[in-house]
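step 4 of 6: structure.
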Amino acid sequence: MLSQYIANGLQAGSITALIGIGFLIIYRTSGFFHFAQGIILTLSAYSVFFLLATGQLNLPLISIIFAILFIYGFGLLMEASIFQPLRGRGASGTTLLIASLGIYIVIQNSISLLFGDDTLSFRWWSVKPGLPLLGARFTTPQIAIILCSWVILVLTWVFIRYSKIGKRIKAVANDPTLARMVGIDVERIYLWAMGLGSALGGIAGILIACDTDIMPTMGMNPFMMGMVAAIIGGNTIWGTAAGALLLGMAKHIGIIWIPTRWQDAITFIILLGFLLFRPQGFSGKRKRKAAV
Amino acid sequence: MNYLLHILILINIYIVLSVSLNLLAGYTGLLSICQAAFYGVGAYATALLSLKAGWPWLGTVAFGIIISGVISVGIGTASLRFRDDYFIIATLAFQVLLYSIMQNWIDLTQGPLGVSGIPQPLILGWQVSSNGGFFLLSLFFSALTFLFVRRIVNAPYGRVLQAIREDDLFALSLGKNVAAYKVSAFVIGAMLAAIAGSVYATYITYIDPTSFTVNESIFILAIVILGGSGSVLGSLAGAVFLVVVPELLRFLGMPSSISANIRQILYGTLLVVCMMWRPQGLIGKYSFQKDGSNR
Amino acid sequence: MTDKWFEIDGLNKSFDGLQALADFSCSVREGEIVGLIGPNGAGKTTLFNAITGFITPDAGNVTFRGVELIGMPSHEIVTLGIARTFQELRLIRRMTVIENVLLAFTNQPGERLGNLFIRWRASSIKEAENHKRAISLLEEVGLAEKSHGPAEDLSYGQQKLLSLVCCLAVGANLLLLDEPVAGLAPHMIEKILLIIRNLQAQGKSVVLVEHNLEVVMQVCNHVVFMAAGKKISEGTPEEVRNDPSVIEAYLS
């Protein structure tokens, strides 16, 4: 039974890792807590649902790709139409956060309005017993989810580390002023970061929907877990992945001792614990202002 | 007429909530998304103590204030170690935690079922039962909150809070115990929010966790920001605006199932629009902009 | 004029492997103006931060009138009698000039919540008093006309003057001024030097970090030269100027 929990924990952790890294890229590069990332997940899942269920595009794989492209474009739209102009007016990180909150509220309620509050599903496959593997049963979707997550995670890491854009993203993340001085088009990098972060969030949303029903509020908890993973991971990609796995495992193995309904609370207790005792997370150093 | 009074009662409750959050967020610059949690603490304190233990309403209010005070001292002190943006996340964490407790500690709060049949207040021989009565009660507390907060923000205390918001290192270098000021603002905000909760619980006579969610905290923050951070009058205006306008939608014949969504889309959009074109809000004097630019 | 008034002993601080302060020691007497000079990155601001509790040194002591400062919270150090300014000119720009000064006064009953309701009259009276004190301080430096305008409307030089006034309003006995005359026109520099000399006349002490060596020669009784976190030389302005190790440190 334990191995089953570990399997579930691995699944949750893998998805959370994607969410966390998407959030992290936006946070480190654009410099604000992009709360609306929580609804990006949801929007993405509903997009797939819309494309499939309304027969617009009956090929699942194509629908998924379209949805991801849509979400990527949506991220670019947010950045270009809202965050970029705000920055031009001297907005602080807090202002951007508040705008992001507003966006979250608007989209969540729009989805509610268009699709209703009841749960929906775009799953077309039948539920089959899973493949036995290391004492646990992994269903095919589960395996797909875990593999997809990690493949994308590694691809993202490679992209950030080795590609030209990726290096520029890192440069802007470290010091936007300096990056501008060496000739990097910082605005373009912000677009890249928001697009990439949104796409990662979108993929995560679709992966979640492969295993659970969707509803307008589905994004908040996974988003918060992803955010917590990024924070306790010390704001690095692999730290976030580690933090995400920790949280996923804690949540699912914790079932042994703690009733399911307290699981989300555990995530936040872990977060608070880290913030209090180890604010630099697993890895990486953050410059901390003199705390008062 | 009853309907009008109902609106006014809600406005008064939101005045208390927003003015108290403004003290914390607008004046001290501590953006908090857990005001609804303290609102809930006050509401549940009143609901449970008056229903199950027969306490008089004022007693439950006092208890709610004390419990909120104690919790907020703990949260406030812990959260102040964090940089600005992490402080917001810490308050979010507490909001989710406190909501989780309301939802899941079924033995205490009855969880998602909520608490119904909350008795109406009997205050010094006055049985409050009509909307008129509740209007006076809520007006009393909103006026009290307004005057109280206005006094402290116009005093040297308020000056220090604003200095902390602008440059807390500078305030520290002048010998101000910045951490103590921040915690005090946080605690006052929490205690006032609890009062609003007590009034709400006894007026609606039924409460459940869904009234005290993250979205509600964001709504209260929206009132503060749209009305004007750093202006007590602004919160008043914001509360009136954000309670009245969605109700007008109801008058236009919109079914209530979608009016809730429309109301939220409305204030969500206003938040974004406000940040873009009028970050200081309606009557505000302060916007969360970078130092000096673009008031 | 006691010898152990303000003592720094063996202060060490490193950041990420960089030694910002290396076994730094020195002392200040009452009524003395000390100049702290050295190349950029010598650790002068770090020293100020360590003294005032903005950073915690790795080792060493700082005592003021016998009280150990290391480990004490910054705001308490101020109440003991040490105030500072910042190299990057900190002020509350959105507040008015006079509000900045009012902010700086210590012992304001109106800052304590309880007093705002129980001892309201005492608070108002003190606030009115402080208002008068603030105006007279601003008059002394010629800023009184601008007192009700926002601080950000002042020129750079006036803002520097204001930050000095705020530092004075704190009423400290030891003032640490970080580049008080940098970037100022000569008449402004004169104003500020006058204020500093006045402080000395009142029995207070000033430590100033400065790159303007002329100013340092003019106004300081004692000069400390530091580089790479270490004290290289100290003595009268003349002595330090002629010290070969100082010349060498500047050239290297």
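step 5 of 6: annotate
 - The CA atoms of residues 229 and 243 of chain A lie 5 Å apart.
 - Chain A touches chain B through 48 residues (CB under 8 Å).
step 6 of 6: archive
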